[in-house]
Amino acid sequence: MFEKFAAYITSQAPITSDALDMMRSLAVMKKLRRRQLLLNEGEVCLYKTFIAKGLLKTYRLRDDGMETILRFAPENSWTTDHDSFMRQIPSQHYIEALESTEVICWTADSLTKIRQAIPAFKAYSDAIITDSLNASYERIYMNLSYTSEEKYEHFVTAFPEVFRRVPLHMVASYLGVSRETLSRIRRK
């Protein structure tokens, strides 16, 4: 499992084998079954997580019990509940495996040690944080400005692999449209 992370991270940043050994020594590796929760609402998020294999979704439950999907995280991406992870407060989110998934996790203390010891990882990590913030702004803009059709087209174009792997009701939840609206869009 760690080999997948090593291949990914060395393609993104100049990470040495000694640095990889350190990262491996501080990592927690987990295998999740389909529908298994990595994080439950009310728990403190202990890890920043790299997805080596599989697919996760981050969501919240509305008062009526309906899911609002905030994010999908496929292979070679990262996920966490940033607020809970950084401030060590109870999460308002769930993170769930949508298929058999293998993840590599680091605690906040471990990541601090890694960032201090490995400048190339710190630079990579800073870039990922910036990209994540920019993606959040773009998603907010899209939700406020795009039509339902434009949201759907953007999702299919931007995330074709995720689109092929998740049921349409989850796409509808992510886009903030009803299943009926999504079905109407798809028929056009």
From TrEMBL:
Residues 30-115 form the Cyclic nucleotide-binding domain. InterPro entries: cNMP-bd_dom (IPR000595), cNMP-bd_dom_sf (IPR018490), RmlC-like_jellyroll (IPR014710). Signal peptide: none annotated. This is Crp/Fnr family transcriptional regulator. It comes from Chitinophaga agri.
